[in-house]
Write a structure and sequence with these properties.
The complex is a heterodimer of chains A (223) and B (195).
Chain A lengths: L1 E9 L2 H16 L3 E7 L5 H12 L5 E7 L4 H7 L5 E5 L8 H11 L6 E5 L16 E7 L6 H4 L1 H6 L2 E5 L11 H11 L4 E4 L8 H18 L2
Helix pairs in contact in A: 2-8
Chain B lengths: L1 H12 L1 H4 L22 H4 L2 H7 L6 H19 L3 E11 L6 H12 L8 E7 L2 E4 L4 E2 L18 E4 L4 E10 L16 E2 L4
Parallel strand pairs in B: 1-2
Antiparallel strand pairs in B: 1-6, 2-7, 3-4, 3-5
Helix pairs in contact in B: 5-6
The chains are: A alpha/beta (223), B alpha+beta (195).
Chain lengths: 223, 195
């Protein structure tokens, strides 16, 4: 006998439940959690290096690095005296909440003020997975071309902040910054757009201020 | 030691596994000198579905298809058991999921299970761009975005399009009619074949 049953459940409910457990855990430890998403080579790790340097002695940080292979990124962060753990996904295109849970245990990371999760370099798949973060940040380097927001609308519509990175290359590449701003605004009218160059320090102060503001808001909210 | 070499090789040569993306551990199965695998004897015997579960993360549509199948089985078991025929999934334009890949992943997931004929139907939901000044949704062509309201020039808001919801499923029940609780079939948005 054929029967039809209403299900009405999120397809990734299991991940969302795990992400909620992580969110509860981060609320308890009053940790601000930022999920960095971009294509490979857009400068996420370099931005993180500039960030942890800029916040040194002010806010404690830790980093979970997601990559298909190598410990390179975690090594770069650890070299700055900041605790980091490398999650090796072995071919997988994104991090999920289970891997974050596992990474926190395996890395034995201390409770910190800000936990950065650097997702696997990919503008598509990581969008779908909630990691228990407070904010998604998408990074787009000027070398990648100025049509990416409309080509990858899912992440640009969801990320609270879009960081346009490597702005020091602007004189050398065709990149219409105004067009990119307008594409991002049409997908996410409430989002924030920052323009940075991690190697020269341009725009990093604005990014750090935003993190301080978010951290203060989270502290207030979890008191 | 012999068992450790032979069993993984059999798994590796399984046609279902072969058409999927490689596992990080796949290469090590071929090497008898590799350290102890994170792959135990008991794990080899959990059936096709469990073996596929190891590949959940290789392509994100694969992981999503597995989660959908898991939910379908749970739902059917809670209704007395049976054979899955069809499941309907709402997918939004901004869900970062490609329907064609998802259907392909679904076929791999249900292959070699008792539900191997089960169909996944994608109900496509477009995102909506509306103007808060005009108070109206604005027409746009699929895959393109309006920068500003074509009528008043104000920035548009994007709504919806992030659906990734299992709507309903149909199954051939193992139970007599009267013992089954039956829900209403949801009305979906535009039906869409994989693009």
């Amino acid at each position: 006998m054929k029967k039809v049953v209403t299900v009405k459940r999120r397809a990734l409910e299991a991940n969302e439940e795990r992400a909620q457990a992580l969110r509860d855990r981060f609320a308890k430890s009053k940790t601000l959690v930022v999920n960095l998403i971009s294509s490979p080579g857009s400068g996420k790790t370099t931005l993180l290096e500039a960030t942890v340097r800029g916040l040194e002695g002010e806010l404690s940080c830790a980093v979970l690095e997601g990559d298909v292979a190598t410990e390179n990124d975690a090594d770069r962060i650890r070299a700055l005296g900041v605790p980091a753990h490398q999650i090796l996904t072995g071919g997988s295109c994104h991090l999920d909440a289970r891997q974050v849970e596992g990474g926190l245990s395996a890395g034995n990371l201390p409770d910190v003020d800000i936990l950065f999760i650097e997702n696997v370099g990919n503008l598509i798949c990581p969008t779908t997975y909630d990691l228990g973060e407070d904010f998604k940040v998408v990074v787009l380097s000027v070398a990648e071309g100025d049509d990416k927001p409309v080509k990858y609308p899912a992440i640009f519509s969801r990320a609270e902040v879009a960081v346009i990175s490597k702005s020091d290359l602007l004189p050398h590449v065709p990149f219409d910054l105004d067009s990119v701003r307008s594409q991002i605004t049409s997908l996410n009218p409430d989002g924030t757009i920052l323009v940075t160059a991690s190697l020269t320090g341009e725009g990093i102060d604005g990014w750090l201020d935003l993190l301080r503001q978010w951290f203060a808001t989270k502290r207030r909210a979890t008191q | 030691m012999l068992a450790r070499i032979i069993l993984p090789t059999r798994v590796l040569l399984n046609p279902t596994i072969l058409k999927m993306a490689p596992s990080p551990h796949a290469g090590r199965f071929l090497c008898p000198f590799a350290p102890l695998q994170p792959f135990s004897l008991s794990r080899c015997h959990r059936g096709a579905w469990a073996r596929k579960a190891r590949y959940t993360d290789a392509v994100h549509e694969m992981g999503i298809a597995l989660e959908i199948y898991r939910t379908c089985r749970e739902t059917i078991e809670s209704h007395g058991g049976g054979r899955l025929e069809r499941v309907r999934l709402a997918v939004g334009e901004l869900a970062a999921v490609e329907p064609e890949l998802l259907v392909y992943a679904w076929e791999a997931v249900v292959d070699e299970t008792p539900d191997d004929d089960a169909e996944l139907e994608v109900v496509w939901h477009r995102a909506n761009q509306h103007c808060s000044v005009c108070g109206e949704s604005k027409d746009r062509s699929e895959g393109s975005w309006l920068r500003l309201c074509p009528d008043c020039g104000m920035p548009l808001q994007v709504d919806g399009g992030d659906e990734l919801d299992i709507l309903d499923l149909s199954f051939e029940s193992d139970q007599p009619d009267e013992e089954i609780e039956v829900g209403e079939q949801e009305n979906g948005a535009d039906r869409r074949e994989a693009p």
